[in-house]
C-alpha cells in the first residue's frame, strides 16, 4: 500500500509469493500456513480494489522446493531446539519416540516431494512480471499441481479422512 500511488501512475502489477500451503494446511506447519493464507487472501482483496486503476495482482503458489527454507539441517536444528525448550509435560505427553519418528517423517516427506528445479519458480515470476496476459495464480511444481491443488478441492470431510488415514502411518504421541 506504501507504493499504491506509484502503481496507479504506472498502471503496474503486483507479483507476490504465497505457497501451496495457502491452499492446504499441513500438520506441523500451522504458523507458516496461516501466514501464507493471509498473503493469498490479502492479494485477492487488493486484486479487486486495484483493478479499477489498471493494476493487476498475481500470486505464485509454489510447492516444496529445495531452498534454504526447507534445508534439512536447518529444519532438524529447529525441531531439536523446539524439543529442547518444550515443557516437561509436553515431552511426557508426546514421548521421545514420537519426537524421533516425527523428525524422520519430516525428512522423508521433504525428500519425497521437494524439487530441485527452482528455475520453475523463477520462470513463473518472469511470466507474471513480463506477460501481456499473466495469470492471477501460478501453481508451481509437480506436488503443487498434481497433489495439493486437487486435494484442496475435496470436501473438508474427505480431506480430514485422508489426513486421518495417512496418520495411521505417522508417529503417535505417547499419551493418546
Q: What does this protein structure show overall?
A:
Helix 3 (72-85) runs antiparallel to helix 4 (88-113). This protein has helices spanning 4-10, 30-50, 72-85, 88-113, 119-130, 142-152, 156-167; strands at 13-17, 56-62, 137-140. The protein is elongated, with a radius of gyration of 19 Å. Strands 1-2-3 form a 3-stranded parallel beta sheet, with helices on both faces. It is 59% helix and 9% strand. The chain has 176 residues and is mainly alpha-helical. 15% of the residues are buried. It starts with a helix and ends in a 9-residue tail after the last helix. It comes from Caenorhabditis elegans. Pfam families: adh_short. GO terms for molecular function: oxidoreductase activity.
- Alpha-carbon distance between the termini? 47 Å
Which bin fits the share of residues in helices? 55-70%
Order of helices and strands: HEHEHHHEHH
The value of Rg in angstroms is: 19 Å
CATH class (first level) name: Alpha Beta
Enumerate how many helices there are, as a single number. 7
CATH superfamily: NAD(P)-binding Rossmann-like Domain
Helix/strand/pairing category: mainly alpha
Average of the residue pLDDT scores: 92
How many strand segments?
3
Strand order of the largest sheet: 1-2-3
Counted up, domains total 1
Low-pLDDT stretches are none
Organism: Caenorhabditis elegans
GO molecular function: oxidoreductase activity
Protein name: 17-beta-hydroxysteroid dehydrogenase type 6
Keywords: Oxidoreductase
Amino acid at each position: 500500500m506504501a507504493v499504491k500511488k506509484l502503481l496507479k501512475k504506472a498502471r503496474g502489477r503486483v507479483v507476490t509469493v504465497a505457497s501451496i500451503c495457502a491452499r492446504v494446511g499441513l500438520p506441523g506447519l500451522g504458523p507458516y500456513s496461516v501466514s501464507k493464507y493471509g498473503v493469498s487472501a490479502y492479494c485477492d482483496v487488493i486484486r479487486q480494489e486495484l483493478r479499477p486503476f489498471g493494476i493487476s495482482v498475481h500470486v505464485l503458489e509454489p510447492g516444496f522446493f529445495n531452498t534454504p527454507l526447507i534445508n534439512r539441517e536447518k529444519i532438524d536444528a529447529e525441531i531439536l531446539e523446539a524439543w529442547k525448550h518444550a515443557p516437561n509435560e509436553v515431552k511426557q505427553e508426546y514421548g521421545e519416540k514420537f519426537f524421533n519418528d516425527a523428525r524422520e517423517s519430516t525428512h522423508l516427506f521433504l525428500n519425497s516431494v521437494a524439487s530441485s528445479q527452482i528455475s520453475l519458480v523463477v520462470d513463473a515470476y518472469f511470466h507474471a512480471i513480463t506477460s501481456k496476459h499473466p495469470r492471477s495464480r501460478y501453481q508451481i511444481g509437480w506436488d503443487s499441481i498434481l497433489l495439493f491443488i486437487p486435494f484442496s478441492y475435496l470436501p473438508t470431510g474427505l480431506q480430514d479422512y485422508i489426513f486421518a488415514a495417512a496418520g495411521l502411518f505417522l508417529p503417535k504421541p505417547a499419551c493418546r
